[in-house]
Each structure stands twice: as C-alpha cells, then as structure tokens.
Amino acid sequence: MHPAWEEAIEGCLGYLATEKSHAVNTQLINRIALESFAAWMEKNQPATVPGGISKENLREFLRARRTERKLAPSSMKMIVVALRHFVAHLKREGLLEHDLLPALDLPRLNQNLPETLSEEDVGKLLAVELPETPLGLRDRALLEVLYASGLRAGELIGLRLENVLREEKLLRVIGKGNRERLVPVGEKALVALDRWLARGRPDLVKPKTGGEVFLNRRGGRLTTARIWQIVQETVQLAGIQKKIWPHLLRHSFATHLLSHGADLRAIQEMLGHASLATTQIYTHVDQARLKEVHRKFHPRA
Fold this sequence. Notes:
The protein is mainly α and 301 residues long. It has helices spanning 3-19, 24-44, 55-69, 73-92, 119-126, 134-149, 153-158, 187-204, 224-238, 246-259, 264-271, 276-279, 281-297, and strands at 164-165, 170-174, 180-184. It contains 13 helices and three strands. A hairpin with a 4-residue loop joins strand 1 and strand 2 (170-174).
C-alpha cells in the first residue's frame, strides 16, 4: 500500500479508537473496508492520493463490491460507514476540499426482528439439573446471569470479581466502546453466582488465574465459543427442539421485561445501547408476539 494511503487510514482508525472509543471488532471491520478501498483505488486509479478521491470513485468502488462480491445490504452498510468515517477524517485534516458524504448514503436494510424464547422455554432451560461439580456450578451461574442481566457473551467473559456488587445486587459491566454501566441482577442468579464463587471457582483457581468471575477448567478465561457450547449442551439436556445461542437469551431478557411493563429507557440502560432507536426494535417484537396471540386465540381472527 502506498504510504499516503497507509498514513490516512491509520490516522482515521487512530482517531476513531481514541476519540470515539470504537471497539476492537469495529476497528477491524473499518480497517478491512478501508484497506480494500485503498487496494481498489491503487488498481483502478493509481495516480490518485486520498485527498483526491471523488464521488465517482466512491460510487464505482461500492458498485464493484456489490456486484463482484454479492454482498448483503448489512455488509454493504458496514463498508459505507467505514468510508463515511474516512472522508470525514480527510475533511477534518484539510486533505479533502469537497464534501463527499452525500455520495455515501446508507443502504436501506430490511428490519429483521430478533428471535426470542418464550418464558416457558427459558424456564425449561434454567430448570435443567446440572451436577454439583465446579463446572456444573459455573454453568448454572453463567446461564442464570445471562438471562437475568441480558449481558453479551463478551461482557460475561470480561466480568470481574470486583464488579459483582453483591450487596447492591448489581453488576458493573464494561460494554461496547468501553462504556461502563450498572446492571441489576435477580436473586436467583445471585444465589447461583454465590454458590459458584464459594464452592466451584476456588477449585479451578491456578497460580496465574486472573480476576474474571467465570473460569475454564484450567483456571483461565472463558471464550465465547465455550459459552456457545455450554448453552447448546444445556439446551439438549432440556429437550428443547430449537436452536438457541447466548445472544438469544439477551433478546429474551429485553422482550420479557418489555412485555411485563418495563420502561424502554430502563431497558436501554440495562442493555448498554448507545441509542434508544436500537432498543425500540423490542417494541416491534412485542407487537408481533401480541398479534400472534390474537391470531391464534381470538375466535374471529
């Protein structure tokens, strides 16, 4: 890659990481998109430096991505967002004279409602009898906390002992963009967590064990893949004939709160959504559920 492109991309990514607190995964997505654009420009417009890009360059690149790779609208949106960040950075640094943002309209996405579990299915999942072993106690606590607090798998992995505020019945969670929030946790989850911390975790601690709440059998930090496996194994034990993954418990957490009358702003805070618009999708989920109930049980539906 030409040094001018490399410098511009690194400057943009550095700004987003430090000033906008972009998460590591978001930084990686932006890097891949921008390096792909730079490679395309060097192949098709080799004499053009970052400050010389035009609306036509951007549109031709996006058209090429869409036709050659047959990318879904959601994937195209991530590329467009990265390019919007890039041209905004070039403008901010005085490298770009013209405003190119009008050429980068975000593609419209079909609104896919998140899947959720019924309260009955969640009850079956959490009613599975797990062994009274360190790993069994861990898995019980892990499942209870996932549903009780709506944590992302990555947030659960990063949960530390000092962030379990037992007396206040709260968890201090570090979410996307290193944003911190306090999330309530119910009594059943706290009881399971207490048992794991008192009777299970000490047996797995090794000399190099860190301060994470949940450990693997070797005393190290859990992975998201292992959390997936734990959920899948428990689903099989429960005899539930559905595909269930950790994030489904987060969706179910939010939907069940809403259906029982919780305030949308409170749900937003518990989920750690930066925008209320992200949380509002659960109102559509709840409406869809109500329509299904009406269709199924109303005599003239």
